[in-house]
Structures are given as C-alpha cells and as structure tokens.
Design a protein that fits this description.
The chain is of the alpha/beta class and 147 residues long. 46% of the residues lie in helices and 18% in strands. The chain contains eight helices and five strands. A five-stranded mixed beta sheet has the order 2-1-3-4-5. Strand 4, helix 6 and strand 5 form a beta-alpha-beta unit. Helix 7 crosses helix 8. The longest helix has 15 residues. The radius of gyration is 14 Å and the shape is globular. The N and C termini lie far apart (37 Å). The model has no long low-confidence stretch (mean pLDDT 95).
C-alpha cells in the first residue's frame, strides 16, 4: 500500500531538518486536499526552544482565518508534544495524523479529549528516523522534549 502523500511530505521535511543538523521531525498543514504549510523542527538551527516541527509549519503557513484552520489536518512525523498540541487546540485544527508514537508519546489523549481526531500510523520510516537520531544524539533529544 503506498504511503499517504501528505505523510510523505512531512517525512521530507524531517529529512530536511536532519540534513541541516537538526532534529528529524517534519510537519505539513493540509487544507482541502493541498498543502498550505510546511515545516520542520528548527530548534538547533534557530536556537529557539519553541521551533518544533508543528510550530514551524504553522508559522510558515502564515495568518489564516479560523475557518481555514477548522478545516485543516496537520500531518506530523512524530506524536505532538504538549506545546504543539496546545497550538493545535488553539486554532481548532480538526485532525492530526502522526507518523509514529513509539519513540515519543505526545499529548494525544489531551487532543482527543478536546475533540481532535488523532490517527497514529506507526510508519516504519518515521520510527527509524527517530530511533537512529535518539541513539546518536540522546542529550539533544532530551533537551528538545524538556528532560
């Protein structure tokens, strides 16, 4: 079965971050079947503690009306952390598709409890990207998730 093209686009963003020396987490914002925002974790690249993949994606999407956000799906290679989940709820994004939650379980239950449809696909490439990164960079990873 072929991979969802939106998840593939998020994986491409994760790979871009890794190529830049950053943490391999990518995200895309989808509205009416097309990508309107792309981003990846840029904490290392920008030195900003809030420059996670989902936050970077939302910034790159630019200012949007509440109606647009409500009709969006956010694809991300990794289960969203509490900060990113808060932004998802703030803008009432209806659906989140996460590539995996084996290496990190984010605030999925918080999202679901607030009406967001959350799907975790356990994509092998997403899992491998994060597993390899965490093994090679445990300190950086722990810094990213606030450990």
């Amino acid at each position: 079965m072929p991979r969802d093209p939106f998840l593939q686009a998020a994986i491409e963003q994760a790979r871009e971050s890794l190529a830049e020396g950053g943490i391999p987490i990518g995200s895309v914002l989808v509205h009416e079947g097309r990508i309107i925002g792309r981003g990846h974790n840029r904490r290392v690249q920008t030195g900003s503690p809030i420059d996670h993949g989902e936050m970077n994606c939302l910034r790159n999407a630019g200012r949007l009306s509440a109606r647009v956000y409500r009709d969006c799906a956010l694809y991300t290679t990794l289960s969203p952390c509490p900060m990113c989940s808060g932004a998802i709820l703030l803008y009432k994004i209806a659906r989140v598709v996460a590539g995996e939650n084996r290496t990190f379980l984010g605030a999925e239950e918080y999202l679901r409890a607030n009406g967001v449809q959350v799907e975790v696909v356990q994509d092998e490439e997403c899992i491998q990207l994060m597993t390899d990164f965490i093994q090679a960079n445990p300190r950086l990873w722990n810094e990213d998730i606030g450990v």
